Amino acid sequence: MISKQLSAWAALSRLPFHSVGVLPFILGGVLAWRLGGAFRWDVCAWGTLGVVLVMLTTYYANEYWDVVEDALSARLGPSRFSGGSQVLLRGLLPRHAALWASLVSLLLAIGVALILQLGYGTGPWTIPFAILGLLGGFFYSARPLRWVSRGWGELWIAFCYGWLPVAVGCYLQVGEIAPLVHWLAVPIGLTIFNVILLNEFPDYPADLEAGKANITVRLGPERASLLYGLTSLGSWVAVLLSLGCGVSTRVLWFYLPILALSLILVVLVLGGRWRDRATLEKLCGANLVVNLGTTVAYILAFLVG
């Protein structure tokens, strides 16, 4: 019984998807070390815990507030990359457990921010940054704001999984945000925007029926495909521009395979291969690799440099 509940909580927590927030945070810390020569492991550990708690707040809230859409997704065609974990719908945990877990995670995230700011002296922006991440994450699906239905959800994700973790990872270490943070954050934010955008494709019929007005519902899959291609192009240009702003050309050693994969995905998406459900599942998985690979390419470039 206990093992089943633990498995249910693990599934509800969407553990594999924590990498999209933790890796940019680590990148910010590595950048601070490269520029300032100092790195505090205890601050990094507490900061990583804070990032995870913000993501748990987000994922639990999404599970609680999106039960209608998730039920429709399960009926119309489930996907590993959308439609929630299905834990609540399968009765593995009561629905209210997700809401309470989200609120507890929110309070713990604020507690970590207090420890960092007051205990480690990480700077006056520590708590405001935490609140900003919680504002974007909790209200991504939660009412009354519910960013995902106002056309702001994808932009909040691009910010909260792009600029914010890189900036905070740097800020907690050195007490300031290096200008290079902005150049690193742009391609990461654009690629995570595309992750969310493409993940909305499997849910399109369910979201349309439920009235969940995200970008894919507003544009339709065909025009959303064009947006995907333009956003990918923007991420490629952003990586190249970062080379002239303090990033070593060594990043290309690690980024070129990611660029090749991204090019292939754009060709397939623009070619309408997303219409095949099995192919779309693979596209979503590879799309996540593009986001993670972009972040890892920067991390490795700074480490070997």
Task: Describe this structure as you would to a colleague.
With 305 residues, this protein is mostly helical. It has a single domain, classed as Farnesyl Diphosphate Synthase, CATH 1.10.600. The protein has 13 helices and no strands. It is globular, with a radius of gyration of 19 Å. The termini are far apart. 50% of the residues are buried.
Short description:
With 305 residues, the chain is mainly alpha-helical. It has one domain: Farnesyl Diphosphate Synthase, CATH 1.10.600.
Largest sheet: none
Number of strand segments: 0
Determine the N-to-C terminus distance: 50 Å
Q: Please give the radius of gyration in angstroms.
A: 19 Å
Q: Give the low-pLDDT segments.
A: none
Categorize the overall geometry. globular
CATH topology: Farnesyl Diphosphate Synthase
Range of helix content: over 70%
CATH architecture: Orthogonal Bundle
- What's the CATH first level? Mainly Alpha
Fraction in beta strands: under 5%
SSE string, helices as H and strands as E: HHHHHHHHHHHHH
> How many domains make up the 3D coordinates?
1
Tell me the structural class: mainly alpha
Number of helices: 13
User: Overall mean pLDDT score?
Assistant: 93
